[in-house]
Amino acid sequence: MRPVSADWDIPSKGHSPLPGDLTPAYVLHARKYGERHLLVDMLTLSAGRTSLMVRGAASAKSRRRGLLQPFTPLLVSWSGRGRIPNLKYVEQHSRHVPPQGRALFSGFYLNELLVRLIGPDEPVPELFFSYEKTIESLGAGENIERLLRAFELELLQTLGYGVDLLHEGQSGAAVRSQAWYSYEPELGLREAASGHKNRIAGDTLIALAQGQLMDVQQSREAKELMRRILGYYLGDRPLKSRELFSALSRD
Q1: How many CB atoms lie under 10 A from the CB of residue 144?
Q2: Going from the N-terminus, what domains does the chain have, and what CATH number goes with each?
Q3: Where does the chain have alpha helices with state H?
Q4: Staple 57 to which of 21, 38, 102, 104, CB 3.0 to 4.6 Å?
Q5: How far apart are the C-alpha atoms of 169 and 167, rounded to whole Å?
Q6: pTM listed for this prediction
Q7: Is residue 3 pLDDT above 50, yes or no?
Q8: Nearest to residue 24, comparing CAs of 130, 129, 105?
């Protein structure tokens, strides 16, 4: 499927759309605001993550509420320059196959990462395109672990926290496939002793950097590494999507 944003200009750093401009968007999270309205966090091409007021959309009969679903490619515009602008227009931009089953929870996990880590109203067009492609790939049933790890790495790169998986942090020595390593957010990789609790194999680091995780062991090690790295920036508050998936998996 052609990405919904393929025909749109990539915004420059610091540019936000004028009120009324249409921009591709995805809903990240929505919650009631008062009795009648919704407050919706969106990832948009032109303005990055932005929060919009959707008046009257709390009603189950609201057409807008039906459109404002996660993972649906949308076109939106808004008006007002106050703290929370008002959604002015929304339409579904193209047909889509939403993620299902475990892939659905993975999509919610990506949404929560974006809400927690991306600052408001700052265009991140490359990340928007990556998110769009990842959601489409989750809907198509592609390998979930590879998709999540690739997006996590790009998210960190966008935030300015890029992770060098191919060199030791202090010495600059190339990672060796047969060696073992540990990772510290402030220091990067360093070779680890055999008894180190969180060590990760060099061949896993190389495979992760190349987007080519091959087996269950590599996928497990890569997942644990990325969880520790992201946890450093997320802080102590746990991810609700991760807790929900764990709870349902136990049932």
Answers
A1: 18
A2: 23-92 (2.40.50.140), 102-250 (1.20.1440.120)
A3: 63-67, 102-117, 125-139, 144-158, 202-209, 216-234, 240-250
A4: 38
A5: 6
A6: 0.87
A7: no
A8: 129
